[in-house]
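G.,

No rush on this.
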Amino acid sequence: MNCAECEDKACRQGKVCHTFTDELRAKYQRKEVKRTMHAAAEIEASYYMKATRLEELIHFAEAMGFKRLGIAFCIGLSEEASILEKILKQNFEVSSVCCKVCAVDKGDFGLAKMRKDGFQAMCNPIAQATVLEEADTQLNIIVGLCMGHDITFSLHSHAPVTTLVVKDRVLGHNPVAALYSRYYKGTKFGLKT
């Protein structure tokens, strides 16, 4: 399948492009999946083009009955994480954990360092997931974890994970801008614009 290359997206109108097997259908009947899909559909139906991603996150957590939320954030987005925590604490118990938690030197694992000499704390997404598991969070929110660290965090999180901020240091944490920019589309990636 190459849905990104399809121009009409006729599936939206009922055209069958791939078989939806009974095995796939059964997965949607699982209790947590069904609950999540209902909450997601309700938010889409109620707040489409009316709510920001942050507002949708709050509505979703409320719809799911979540009481304890976790924030796994990059140290470079500490201010944003602090603001987010204050907002969420109005309705939820919130635990937050910085990427440098446990202060483990990159040298301990032979990781590349930005500066060759001295201590440099590695990002520690497994510890972040562990800290939030100890806090018994019901939903974890990524705020700007590095590429790869976000994946590692998601793989080790005991709770479902959503991303509020995707890190892009060059484009002000707006990675989709690279898809709109003539420079990135044309020169950087060699695509015809």
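When you get to it, here's the other one too:
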Amino acid sequence: MGRIRQMIKVDGRECWTMFDTGARNTYVVPAVAAILVTSKMSHPIRTALGGGVKETNRRAILEAEVEGHFISTHAMVIDQIGDDEDGKSIEVLFGALAMQQWGIRPIPDEEKLDLSHYPEEFVEF
């Protein structure tokens, strides 16, 4: 499992983000969701995260800049993601599905991201 922590830009706002291959989905806190396009889901979704079960019925379209690269993905809005190992509050949890979609690979030993597989264009068959 790989985890990398760093800032990303969401609508010009710096957001403390954890890129976590152990999380399938992407999550944002309400402060970040406030600057995103959000909508209500028809059914609530429950997820085990940070040692507890959290429930949400809101989703957002996360458009952000990761090391100068544009990304857009779906995110679930939850009240609190939790704190990282240093006690800093995580605002965005960037999950494995979004990392796969955008060619982002964590390099835990170097505490950085590999964006060499970032797609300049999508080829669909």
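The chain has a mean pLDDT of 94. Residues 3-114 form a domain with the Cathepsin D, subunit A; domain 1 fold (CATH 2.40.70.10).

Enjoy the weekend,
O.
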